[in-house]
Design brief:
With 250 residues, the protein is mainly alpha-helical. The protein has a domain of 80 residues: 434 Repressor (Amino-terminal Domain) (Orthogonal Bundle). The protein has a two-stranded antiparallel sheet. Strand 1 and strand 2 form a beta hairpin. The two termini are 34 Å apart.
Length: 250
């Protein structure tokens, strides 16, 4: 129910649980199993999140299950947690506010999302300011703003626009997802051509084990979550773009 740990850590676990190191060693070798009571204490020891704590206790119950049917039950419970973690939309806890007709327009070009997010910056809440910042014609900016207002993603008061529902996320099943990714990767290519010193671009091709692929994927999702947490508390001053890819070549 737990990965292998060094002797020092085993001693720490044993001390935390009030048992002998040899007992912990037997558990980690698969000869014995933790009790649920010990599992609760280990959640505290490892500082597990609520979701991680739930999954760890499921692992303990799976290991202790005395019948095939019971093991199958806990296996299904664990798979449910894994599926939940793999669903990025659920992990990021984002609400989707656009219907499909609005999505089709919103994700048809990069500047819809750009203008939408720009409205979070006080200095960029007018047609003139947005047009100058993006170097796009005023009629186009007016068209975009009218659209954002029509679907309640923006509100207008005497020529000043403010953002409505700022956070929008496409599920991996959405028909708009390919266009959305393409829009911003095209902008990333343009940014590479500009070669600005403050920009960060990284590309690499690597060979790695099958078992480590999921570890990298989880680490990248954690990076996205950390990024979003920083952005949530950050003062709106500039517009930045992040694109992240991790894919199988063949």
């Amino acid at each position: 129910t737990s990965p292998s740990y060094g002797r020092g850590t085993q001693r720490d676990i044993a001390q935390h649980l009030g048992c002998k190191t040899a007992y912990i060693s037997q558990i980690l070798k698969g000869y014995l199993d933790f009790t649920l009571e010990q599992g609760i204490k280990l959640n505290v020891f490892f500082k597990h999140t609520e979701e991680e704590s739930h999954f760890f206790l499921l692992q303990v119950q799976y290991a202790r299950a005395g019948s095939h049917e019971l093991k199958l039950y806990f296996e299904k419970q664990m798979n449910t947690v894994i599926d939940h973690r793999r669903n990025l939309m659920k992990r990021l806890k984002v609400e989707n506010t656009l219907n499909e007709n609005f999505k089709h327009i919103y994700y048809s070009a990069w500047y819809y999302a750009a203008v939408h997010i720009m409205l979070t910056i006080p200095q960029l809440r007018s047609v003139h300011a947005i047009s100058n910042a993006l170097d796009l014609p005023r009629p186009l900016i007016i068209k975009v703003l009218d659209f954002l207002v029509s679907c309640k993603l923006a509100v207008e008061k005497k020529g000043v626009y403010e953002s409505g529902a700022v956070s929008i996320h496409l599920s991996s099943e959405s028909i708009q997802i390919q266009r959305h990714h393409t829009n911003w990767r095209n902008k990333a290519i343009q940014a590479i051509d500009k070669n600005l010193s403050n920009n960060l671009h990284y590309s690499s091709v690597v060979s790695m084990s099958e078992s480590d692929i999921s570890k990298v994927r989880e680490a990248l999702i954690k990076t996205i979550e950390d990024f979003r947490a920083i952005v949530k508390e950050s003062r709106e001053e500039r517009i930045q773009v992040i694109c992240l890819d991790f894919f199988k070549l063949f």
